[in-house]
Amino acid sequence: MALALAVLLPAGLCAQQPAPVRVQGTVFDSLTRTPIAHALVQFARENGDPGVVSDSTSADGKFTVLLPPGAWIAGFMHPRLDSLMIELPARRVEVVPGKRVRVVLAIPSRRRLMQVLCGAQKEDSVGVLQGYVFRAPQQATLDSGGVYVQWTEIQIGQGGVRSDMLTLRASVSPDGSYRACGVPANTQAVVWAQRGTASTGLIETEIPKYGIARQDLVLDPEATREIAAPSDSAIVEEPTPLLPGELLRPLPRVGSARFSGVVRDVGGKVLENARARIIDHRPARTNGAGVFVLDSLAQGTQTLEVRALGYVPESRVVNVTAGAPPDTIRLTSLKAMLDTVRVTAERVFDADVNGFEQRRRSGVGRYFSHEDIARRHPPDFTHVMYGMPFVRVEFRGDTASLSMRGTIGRCSPAVFLDGIEQFLETESDLTFLVQPEDIAGVEIYTSGALTPAQFWSRAQSQGCGSIMVWTQARRPNPRLPEKPPQ
Predict the structure, then answer these.
(1) Residue 233 in domain
(2) Residue 409 belongs to what domain range?
(3) Is 272 found in the same domain as 332?
(4) Residue 229 has pLDDT above 60, yes or no
(5) Residue 403, domain member (yes or no)
(6) What is the torsional sign of CA 48, 51, 55, 56?
(7) Distance, CA of 141 to chain centre
(8) Is this prediction's pTM over 0.85?
(9) Contacts 24+ apart (CB under 8 A), 421-426
(10) Are 53 and 64 in contact (CB under 8 A)?
(11) What is the maximum alpha-carbon separation in the chain?
């Protein structure tokens, strides 16, 4: 009976099928020299037969699949490939019964990618910024225009240290893409798209060490009406020539779009009286529910800044579009950051404990001693700054603010007190931390490139300068009032 059944069955079912082979491998990023987690690895038959075998890589970039013997085509997908705007060639894998098969899939090296993207480069330190420019509000790509990339370089020569601002323009292709080759790697740059008189906002972008970055931009070609520059009620500034390329900086645009959001701390508590603004536009304060609304904005890519007294400022790139849902911004308190630091040593004073005199001898920056300040009899810190070179002081009602000429125009300088950056809502709040009679010296650096490396801050990455304030003697840690006096 068993024999009869065997005869009646199709011959193919009796033949022994070859056992599948275990294929193992790794997906690797040659740019960062790290494995790629959560990459989708796929194997397809070389002869075009239907059926695809897939697996997702683990945290260490490894994958395992079972494949019947034969010729296969292997590849992988991951958002990192999209950010690099590249398509990797598929790899042929021969699966042989009883033979161990290992496959390594990788993003090519920096040198190879740069050669593909920009051709042969004379220097290894240059990189590329690329992406797409979209039209607001339809989100279709633009077919023309330009993308500007601006950064600061330090030149050291016989004349001393000089800071230059360089600007590179990349054309927008008919498919909406752009590629700016020649941007230095491992640097902060400012980017904007422009077509005719329309432009996006100014966007801060980091070019990583491996030199390949992507930044998509959204531009509203209809928002061409410029915002009138407000007149200053009090300006004290030494005349400074414009840096190369500064005339290329686009003026802010006004439109009919609105952008709203809610400001909370990391625990979810809403923050009242936080200040939010789109760069080059008027700020708005949050209400009792932590909500802010910014109006009269041009649609497109902008930079949002949010600040609250006692919290670390937040800066992010946003796309302003009509009907966009409110954003949520979470700020980290300074106390949460400083709680991780425990100071156990006593401060030791000497003739130049903070390096003030040593830096003054270098000739970089402007310096003012306690005697220089005392001769002017300033009532508070704001009036100390009033009359300082390169610093603009603006009084609007009871609020005073400081600004400098940065690489992207007017900007707020970083303010340090005894070497610690002060994250304050307005410069007027510094009045609560230091009195003029306690100031031992003030240093002013007109750009981020000239600021000493130990005093790095976000303001420097935006091309802005810094103000260092040093006190004469050790005093108890001052406390800010919960709310500024009315």
Answers:
(1) no
(2) 342-471
(3) yes
(4) no
(5) yes
(6) positive
(7) 23
(8) no
(9) 421/455, 421/457, 423/307, 423/311, 423/312, 423/313, 423/334, 424/307, 424/309, 425/274, 425/275, 425/307, 425/308, 425/309, 426/275, 426/399, 426/400, 426/401
(10) no
(11) 118
